[in-house]
Amino acid sequence: MKKQQIIQLLGSSLLASALLVGCGGGTDTTTGMGDGGQGNGSSGNMGNQGDGSEEGAGSNIPYLRTNHANYKEHGSNLTPAPVKDANAKSINWTIAATTEEGAIKLQEHLKFMEDKLLADQNPRGWDKLFLMEAYMKYNRYYTTAVERSGTNVVVSKNANTACAYEVISAHSDAVSGDFFAQGEIMNDYSATAESILASSACDAVRTSLETYISQRQMGRGRGN
Ligand code: HEM
Questions:
Q1: What are the pocket residues of ligand 1 if the criterion is a CB atom closer than 6 Å to any ligand atom?
Q2: Is 185 part of a structural domain of the chain?
Q3: Tens digit of pLDDT at every position of the chain (224 positions)
Q4: Has residue 129 been placed in a domain?
Q5: What is the domain range of residue 165?
Q6: In a domain, 57, yes or no
Q7: Per residue, what are the HEC states of 177-212?
Q8: Which helix (DSSP H) or strand (DSSP E) does residue 18 occupy?
């Protein structure tokens, strides 16, 4: 089946599900604005390896890291790469796993992380880019929709502000360039986050974001 057909097929059901629940995974997330993510997240410490296992078994991060080369851009032998549309503020992925188990593990990873972010938690709480993404998700500045069909996983992220778009765009670069391409998850993207935060795109939320980061940032290897 051609890539365009897959996108159209999954796109229409994606749109349907996104419209239905606002974010993938069927949980009702449209409970309106949170408290701006201002300091009610608990800060557990589930181990200290910094290799992603501290995020909890359900994250599938150790599996994804080990199997990073078993995911391809659909219809090619290339590393999965995000399709970005700055005007639409959208990031789309069509990822083909070499096995159905691999596709399921990735889908579970996205559901696990979505639930964490909507529960006002901070995976990779030492990395400012991930802190900013958590802030954007909790405050509904972007949505994520995920659909799996066999070994294919389509991810659609849509932001409603320029600042949120810059954050999910930078995150997608890390996922493609480090996580998928090399299985490298130890780099810190805080400097990238700081330049986004300093940009005019984030004027409206800079103070609130800086407060959020100062309240939430943890030492490396800790998450919740
Ligand atoms: C410490 C390691 C990791 C953490 C804390 C992490 C966390 C996250 C979070 C918070 C999201 C966004 C979820 C949402 O927007 O609803 C995400 C998305 C994603 N992750 Fe991970 N992840 C990690 C490692 C990996 C690895 C190793 C891979 C693959 C090899 C991977 C693949 C993806 C993909 C494809 C997405 C969706 C695309 C996107 O958000 O642009 N992640 N992850």
A1: 52, 55, 61, 64-65, 68, 82, 91, 93, 109-110, 113-114, 117, 123-124, 133, 137, 144, 155, 157, 171-172, 175, 179-180, 185
A2: yes
A3: 455 555 555 555 544 454 444 444 444 444 443 444 444 444 444 444 455 666 777 899 999 999 999 999 999 999 999 999 999 999 999 999 999 999 999 999 999 999 999 999 999 999 999 999 999 999 999 999 999 999 999 999 999 999 999 999 999 999 999 999 999 999 999 999 999 999 999 999 999 999 999 999 987 654 44
A4: yes
A5: 49-216
A6: yes
A7: HHHHHHCCCCCCCHHHHHHHHHCHHHCCCHHHHHHH
A8: helix 3-21
